[in-house]
Amino acid sequence: MRILYVLIAVSLISVMALWAGKLGMLRKKVAALLACVSLACGGSLLLLAVLPGNSFYGETITSVNLPQGKKLVALTFDDGPYPPYTQALLKVLESRQVPATFFVVGNNASRYPEVVRLVASKGHEIALHAGEHRDLLRLDRAELAGNIASGKKVLEGLTGKPVKYMRPPHGFRDWLVMEEVAKAGLRVVNWSVIPRDWTNPGVQVIAERVCKEASPGAIVLLHDGDAPAQIASREQTVKATGIIIDELRKDGYEFVTVGELLSRNAG
Ligand SMILES: [Zn+2]
User: Distance from the CA of 82 to the CA of which of 11, 68, 121, 178 falls in 20 to 30 A?
Assistant: First the structure.
């Protein structure tokens, strides 16, 4: 089932109800109520598809419940690889001995395979963002399955390791997206902290937003790439990452990959 079909259906129901009210087939108040309820249902379902932190359409991981006192955080980076920023980020992470999870775009990986291999060789976790950075809610089943399969194949070919996690572009998902992701043997991982670094609001702003919102078990969404335009600088994110690590460490946080964070789940 697609959220798009539901939206078309509720729009039709609303229009038909209003027409029925106008033609006297329904009382006007009943027609208006029916139209409002239909639109509210459609709007709610759309919100659940685009908001990152719910599992309405299927399990969506946004943070992990840790044992009392454990202060672990997972830094995640979307949209790469994206030279030279991905490599610059790797240096920041390496200098601080921090592992991270990279949600990689298959097309970008094909363009810069050596960068993906470099990320993996540094001990970071490689996960799938998409084969091609598209809104998966707009794809039909075949396109969706092809998108996921192509991205997974590229990443697994480059790293020699199975990919376990996927973050759909923008975090958008509905019933069919969840079904195809599960068929590919992947789990959906969104985020609990989003500093909106892609808008380049300033190094300090990015760092402050993350440090303010971070909590034990949090998954932080940052970007080493810029999909699909591939023109923006990610310099601010690279610099902010160093500050985030230093500041959160002062607060007693340790950094782990998403896979490691999930393995510590206290249930
Ligand atoms: Zn993205």
Answer: 178
